[in-house]
Each structure stands twice: as C-alpha cells, then as structure tokens.
Amino acid sequence: MYAKCGYLEYARRLFDEMPHRNIVSWTALISGYAQHGRADECFCVFSDMLIYCRPTEFAFASVLSSCGKHDGNRGRQVHAFALKTSFDVYVFVSNALISMYFKSCDCGGIGNVDGKDDAWTVFKTMEYRNLISWNSMIAGLQLCGLEAQAISVFSQMHCDGVGFDRATLLSVFSSLCGINCSDIDLGLKACFQLHCLTIKTGFHSETEVATALVKAYSNLGGEVADCYGIFLETNGCRDVVSWTGIITAFAEQAPEEALFLFCQFCQEGLTPDRYTLSIVLKACSGLATERCTWVVHVQIIKAGFEDDTVLKNALIHAYARCGSIILSKKVFNEILIHDIISWNSMLKAYALHGLATEALLLFSQMNVKPDATTFVSLLSACGHSGMVKEGTKVFDAMSTNYGIVPRIDHYACMVDILGRAGRIPEAEELVSRMPMKPDFVVWSALLGACRKHNETRLAKLAATKLNELEPTKSLGYVQMSNLYSSSGSFNEASLIRKEMSGSRVRKEPGLSWIEIGNKVHEFTSGGRNHPQRDIICAKLEGLVGQLKEKGYVPETSLALHDVEEEQKEEQMYHHSEKLALVFALMNEGGFDYTGGVIRIMKNIRICVDCHNFMKLASNLFQKEIIVRDSNRFHHFRDNMCSCNDYW
C-alpha cells in the first residue's frame, strides 16, 4: 500500500523489518519501484529475491515494466531468465516483454529496428494472445513511428475475429494521423472504414474516441464539416480535449470558424489550457490583422500563462503572420528562457518579413544548439534579401560546423537563393547533385527563377516535372504562360493555356482580404462578388489617374495578348489587392487601432504591376501599406518596399 502511494522509503523500511518474507512481499516491493520508474532499485530487489524464492509471472512483468528507453540490455537479461525458467509462456510476461522492447526503441526517429523485431518475435511466438497483447503491439509500433505496420496489425487482428477496445482505437487513429500516405484518398477511406466500425460497436459516443477520429480526419485533409458533425455527436460529454480537437481541425482551413468555436467554448464555462490557447493562436495567424491575436494574448495573461514559453512561441508566430514584426520581437524579448522553438520562431518571423540582416544577427546570439529548422529559416531569409554569399555560407556551415545533414527543404532554399540572383546554371547544377529526388518545392523554386530571368529551356524542364508531380496544380502552366507572354511569345503562351484547359487544370483565382472594424471583406479580381463593386471601381479609376500623374505606368506584359491595350490596363486595375486598398481608403475609420496602417492579405504572389501601384499609393497617402502574399510580407512606405523590389 505504501509503495503504491509513493512512500517507497517507508515501504522499504517495513519490508526490511519483516522477519519472514514471501513471494508476495518481494513482488509488492518490486511493483512499487516499477510504478514510480525506479528501475535501478527494482532490478536490485528482483536480483535479491532470486536468492530466496522462485519469482512469479507478476514479478517478471513488474521488473520488465520498469525498463526505460536505455534499459534494453537489462530487459534482455530478464527475458533470457524467463526463457530458462519457462515463464515466457505466461501471456502476462510476454505482454510486458513486447512493451519493454518497444520502450527501448529510439522513438525520436522511425523506430529502432532491433527493438521492433524483438517485440515482433515475442508476439509471433506467443501460443495465446489476449487483447492486451494486440494492443501492446499496435501501440508500440505507433509510438516508434511505424504507423503503417500498426494499422496492418490491427487489420490482422480484426480479420482473426479478435475484439478491440477504446485503447485499440486510440492507437489506430493515432497511427492514421502520423502515416505518410501518398494517396490521401486511400487514407481517408481507411479512416471512414474505422469510423463505421466505431459506430457499429458504439465507441463513437465516447469522447476520447470521437476526438481521435476528428484529429485523424483533419490530418488526412478531410472536410471540416464532417469533423464538426462527429464533434456534435459528443453533446453533453465535451471536455477541453474534445473542444481543442475540433478547434484544431478548423484552425488552418477556416480560422474564422475556429475562433467562433473558441468563443462557444468559453461561453460554456470551460477554462482553456495552454494547448487550446496555442491552437487558437494558430488560427489567429491566418487572419488579416493582429487584433484577434492581441485579444487572445490578453486572455493568456489573465489565465496566468504569461510566462509560458510554448504560448510565447505561438504568439511570436501569430504576430509575425499578422504583419506585426515589432510585437513578435517584443514577445521574444519577454521570454525568460528561450528554447530552440523560441529562436526558430523569431528567425522565421524575420525571414517572413525579409529581414535577413536581423535574422543573421539573432542567429549569432543563439545560446542553444541550432537544428535543421533553424537553417531553413536562415536560408529563407537570405533568399528573400538576395544575400547569396551569406546564404551559401550558412548552407556550408550546417554540416561542417553543426553536423546537420542538409534535407530537401534546405536544398530548395539554396536553389531559390541562387535562382533569384540569376545564377541559374549553379542552381541547375545543385539540383542535379542533390542526394535525394527533387520535390515540388525544389522544381517550383527553379521554375520561378527561370521565369524571373527568362530562361526558357530550363523552365520547360521544371514545368514538366511540376506537372508530373502535381498534375492538378496550375503553377507550372501559369509560370510558363507568363514567361512566354513577357518575352512576346504569345502563340506559345496561348498553347500553354490550351494545354492547361485540356488537362482540366484551373488557375487559382487571386483573392485578397482586408479587415474593416470587426468584419473581413474578400475581394476577387474585378470585384465581382462585392456589394459595393461599382463605387469601389469608380474610386479606383480616380486613384489610377492620380498615380499616373506620379509616374504610374501599368505593367501589361502579362495580360492577354489578343485584347486592346486599354483592356489590358483595365485588367491590371481590377486586381484584388488594388480593390482592397481602395475599400480600405474609403473606410479609414476602421483602422483607428492600427494607427492608420493598411493590411492586406493575398492568397497568391503579388504581381509587378500591383507592387508598383502600392509603392506609389503609400507615398501619395503617406501611409504604410502591408501586403502579405503567398511568399512574404511587403511593407510599402514612402514609395519604397521592404523587399527592395527583390521578391
């Protein structure tokens, strides 16, 4: 009793004072040490026990359960003794052996092969397996990053007619969340089948199972509406974990709805924990302004989490994504002890805003060992600022100074750095000698460089590779069409557009968002869906006239070649970010809390014409205009952009 309650020293003293000890006494003390992770004492007591009495299966199981990640050799010694004494035939001991071998795996990677194989050997040689045997195998494979094998074992278990419980489903759903499935539809199909199975067995009504199911659907790219339907089925049993699960599902795909759900969560009288708040901050990072981030920041302080490093790191990211690098830096400076994520978050914030000099300076001040993510942020920052020499130095230092083997995302950054600077042959050579197969990001970086510097030959190769890797995406077609149009090869551009149409690939429409007061307004090219379209277009026409007097010349080279020049200009005028800017100027009262800064969020890369337009408008109205496109932030002020026209 004392051992189970944590009073191990008192339990040991009572044990030592006993005039006669039996196997129950020894097993109880071993079990007490095992439950509290005292592996050394557990093994010592087990060794002493062997002098006086024969162990039981419970003693074996207890000493095996105490084995931690670094106790594999001890566990093997106990296993050998169990084999000699035939205790391995007990299912209780075999189950403990399976768990022990998986715990000795290096779960930080893909799993220790030897440990996994030993566990599998024990499992296969068992004459009788109970539910715990199967659960131990599935959970062990999942924890060691062998998700596909975990799902395979569950399939075998189900085919053999073995029943399952809540623990089984939780492990299988966790495996689905982590599986690297090249076919998303196949993963969703497996998730749907498991969903049906939970309904048939009644487990779908349990909050933990429903939450795990929501997470699996969300991670596999399922519809958030389906996730919400599962969540609603847990009515009356929802806790902070289930609420956090559904907010997580919405956070990336529909951040506004995620914040609405968080409001509902608070209205039900539940108290958010640090994990809930970190997910809400993730949703805030997808919005156009920092107002919601600031509100959540206040709640964090009220809840007493103001010194929580995890939340501080999330705040750095959220403020940076909302355009406020100053607030990101303020939060970073308030952190008492910076962990690696703190440093990486701030480096990523600087990279996002094109502040490479600040990023390199911060890197020189790091007091923790950098990891692979650190160098992705540094290389990204150098790429956004045209710092080829510095970027190359960082890339070389990864392996030579820090022992970090470059991954594919590091190579993609280097291709981008070299390509943007016009060093196309070097970028091509780097792609050819990569130790891994180039992915979509690498080829898109190379294609973007070729488009910028009119390198048609290599652009064709990159576009072909992109279309092979992602046949439903329009990037390869659009970039090649733009390249041909800008060089005056309009027939070739027309052929590319026909090929794109024939492949049933649609270009992602340009969208821009701006927040006025408490409402987010969405603009499409031409402003077709906005109720104030006519007024906005009229105001825009007047603004264009003013800017032309300041030197604005519409960039029409990328417009369709088979229309009149006047129509080309009109196409440029009605881009979504221009309409958002005019609407903001019409409603300046909605920007009181930002001090007059206009923030526009865009889903694709800003074009050259809109970039020139924003620079002149910032000077005309003496306002800072911040545009976040798909690549980075552009801070327009006094006829200048923070990117120095390098993006």
Please characterize this protein's 3D structure:
The protein is mainly α and 647 residues long. The chain contains 33 helices and 6 strands. It has helices at 8-17, 23-35, 39-52, 57-65, 72-84, 91-103, 113-125, 131-143, 147-159, 166-178, 184-201, 207-219, 224-232, 240-253, 255-267, 274-284, 291-302, 309-321, 325-334, 340-352, 356-364, 372-385, 388-402, 408-420, 424-432, 440-452, 456-469, 475-486, 490-502, 533-549, 565-573, 576-586, 608-621; strands spanning 511-516, 519-524, 598-602, 625-628, 633-637, 640-641. The protein has a 6-stranded mixed β-sheet with strand order 2-1-3-4-5-6, with helices on one face. α33 (608-621) links the parallel β3 and β4. α6 packs antiparallel against α7, α15 (255-267) packs antiparallel against α16 (274-284) and α23 runs antiparallel to α24. The chain is elongated. Residues 107-113, 560-569 and 590-594 have low confidence and may be disordered.
